[in-house]
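Example 5.3 — [RNA-polymerase]-subunit kinase
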Amino acid sequence: MSAATTQVNTVPSSMDNGEPADPAPMTTVARRLAAVCDMIQEHRGAGTTISARRAAVISAMIDDVAATTAEGRPRACRRKRRMASARGYKQEGRRLGQGERGIVVRARHRATGQVVAVKSLHRRSGGSYSGDVLREACFTAAGGGHPSLAAFRTVARNPGTMDYSIVMDYVGPSLRAVMGDRGDRPFSEAEVRRIMRQLLAGAEARHGHGIVHRDIKPDNILVGDGGAIRICNYGVAKSLAEQNPPCRFSGTLSYMAPEMLVENADHGVVVDVWSLGCVMAELLTGKLVFQGKDEANQLFKIFDVLGVPCKRVWQALKPQAHDDTVQAWRARQLRVRHRNRLRELFPEEMLSRDGFQVLKGLLTCDPEKRLTAAAALRCPWCTEDDIDGAPVSERITVTKITAMASKLRSLAISFLGCALELLRPKALVQ
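Solution (predicted structure tokens):
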């Protein structure tokens, strides 16, 4: 490595803190969440549809997960209740978002008037549809009202059908939408620090219960009033405590950690930390730091910047694919004496030394050396006070107002030009 990319000893790593890189805690929340996932998996394995009565039981278990997370202890007794009705919510305006798995709409509770976000998944063939909804609802419920996680309300069922929806508190636009409103103008380091503190805090809370999100990206991050940042969308999440976690490699290519790209089925919570590093880099530059066409090309993009891992680190990734290709890349880089180029992409005028220590710790190929969310939060960059305390939301508002003023000014100048043209004497025109 070059001097510019040498790791400073003050940066805590998972090994420095005596923390395992991928803890699998068996908290009460983790056990209850795993029980729901295992129950759903039983139906999938048997090829049976989850009945309305069984769905109501699972819904009550999901409520228990939410209460346990929020209160720090299980309920003294389980209260039997009917599942909420989807007819109790009225959609307002256009859809908030639409993806491969489902749609999210803004709605209002007819009885209380509370504004919520309602997510409905696309119907699939067979009996897996309701299981997908209930599974994602349980991961959402495990947020327990944490300020950096989307808040779960309930599971709602459309009467007379097997259509289920997840009801959550309404937050605001996605971080992706906010980035678009800025015209992809990069965020300042102070803004990125405020965002990353919240994202790392939300990830730490999830990882404390052995929950792996597996698809953290700006599209799955919401921005609320006052600059509140919340992680959402647990459609491909897994629990390290469940008996048969999903082995399907899901997520978004540009944010996938190396261990996922090589099809390591044992990947743990630090894959989320890698994704957070990619988000941090994108906020600073306004563009993706690694953008490949497929899994192999994505690995090449990563190793072209960070360098191909040594044989020990490569084996630590437990690769199930691309082994021969990566060995050829390593030999080629050794011949040309390739070095880590991450600091070249993020010079000190863009990111301070303390900030780079965090970014480098998040974007570390070796899962055992990668910073955990908890360790990153203890880094000086995350603990120091902000010099500029303006919330992100205020900066977003200012950006929108400035853009609108610019458009109005252009329209006014154009209108004035047209008016002068009409008033100009014909002799002059000719």
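Remark. The chain has three domains: 12-23+173-383, 28-169, 394-429.
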